[in-house]
Design a protein that fits this description.
5 helices, four-stranded antiparallel β-sheet, alpha+beta, rod-shaped, 4 strands
Length: 202
């Protein structure tokens, strides 16, 4: 539509964690031959340019109007797309970290409840020099929930069914802890090139 050749470059903005991709957004950057790149965050602002009715015969178009300047402008276009994506990724990151912290607290509360259900209330370890105080097994006195329930699962004096249940709790807790750790490992926002549309002056 303009008086000079332009190119529309599309990019995928991506935010990844240890277990995969958490956020993806597609952006376009309109790059005029003689002007600065302009990032287009909303698809509605650039999808009309992809209308097949606008297509022109491709023969010689790239070589004649684009090959001499587009390659040198790709990095600037990518930086323009990244500048648009970063605030989106940052807002998502803040929400994600709050959600992750809530999930960690919920897991700790669940583990504490299951430990009390299976191991009973936490007891104070007997003083070795005070023989009048009852000695308790480690799963009644260990300082952390995971230590207590792991000790219960390994105690041969405990009924087999209860040990199996405790072992299942430990396994589930460890898997969930590992999954949350993976989700917490957020990488820096990145931009991946997708495609290019040549815009020929009419």
């Amino acid at each position: 539509d303009g008086s000079e050749a332009e190119v529309l470059l599309t990019f995928l903005g991506r935010l990844q964690c240890g277990s995969g991709c958490l956020l993806e957004r597609v952006f376009a950057v309109r790059v005029p031959r003689g002007g600065e790149p302009a990032a287009l965050a909303e698809p509605a602002s650039w999808l009309t340019l992809c209308d097949p009715a606008r297509a022109v015969p491709p023969a010689g178009t790239w070589e004649q109007q684009f090959a001499s300047w587009v390659p040198a402008r790709r990095d600037a276009a990518a930086q323009a797309a990244l500048a648009v994506f970063k605030p989106i990724a940052w807002a998502f990151r803040v929400d994600h970290e709050e959600t992750s912290a809530a999930d960690q607290r919920a897991l700790a509360d669940w583990m504490r409840q299951r430990t009390e259900d299976l191991c009973g209330p936490l007891e104070t370890q007997a003083d070795l020099f005070n023989t009048t105080v009852q000695a308790f097994p480690r799963w009644r006195t260990a300082p952390s929930d995971i230590e207590r329930i792991t000790a219960l699962a390994a105690d041969a004096s405990v009924p087999a069914g209860k040990r199996r249940e405790a072992s299942g709790v430990v396994s589930l807790y460890q898997r969930r802890t590992a999954a949350l750790a993976q989700l917490a490992q957020l990488a820096q926002p990145e931009i991946v090139p997708l495609g290019m549309l040549l815009l020929v002056p009419r």
